[in-house]
Amino acid sequence: MNSEQALIAIYPGSFDPLTVGHEDLARRTLIFADRVIVAVARRATHQKMLLFSVEERLEMLREVFAGEDRIECDTFDGLLVDFARARGARFVIRGLRAVSDFEYEFQMAQMNRELSNQIETLFLIPDLAYSFLSASLVREVASLGGDVSRFVSAPVLRRLNERFRR
Ligand code: PNS
To answer: 107-115 long-range CB contacts below 8 Å, 24 or more apart?
Structure first.
């Protein structure tokens, strides 16, 4: 199959930090896509207090997905639809954990469709075990000394421990 025929999906996000819920969605995407590009946004729609720099988040992604040759990790600046077009991707993957995610996701998907009718947003539901999990809760629990080892992979845990000096 040449690269023009390959079905490429972009899985964008802040990934501050990457959780096992994110990992689950990236790997689930490979059920129907040939390749997935997990992409850290330099500009997120909802600006948050970030724990890790874009470069640190990319490094963690690369360590976690090392050896998984259908998963590529990258960063992007500017509009998601422009990045998707530039990388030959027709699909954007987003996770829906609960109804509370819906409004934000619906707005972004509709805006992205206004910006480019060529790119479809596909929503995937994570494993039930991760339905409560969010990067913001991992940040908070880790910062308060809680055990987050079930919620993140080893490279992420190591950086959280370094950040909070344990
Ligand atoms: O993990 P997040 O923070 O919920 O991810 C949001 C993200 C990064 C997917 C979104 O903010 C985004 O696509 N930002 C890139 C800039 C852009 O295209 N903005 C218009 C989106 S409607």
So the answer is: 108/45, 112/80, 112/81, 115/79, 115/81
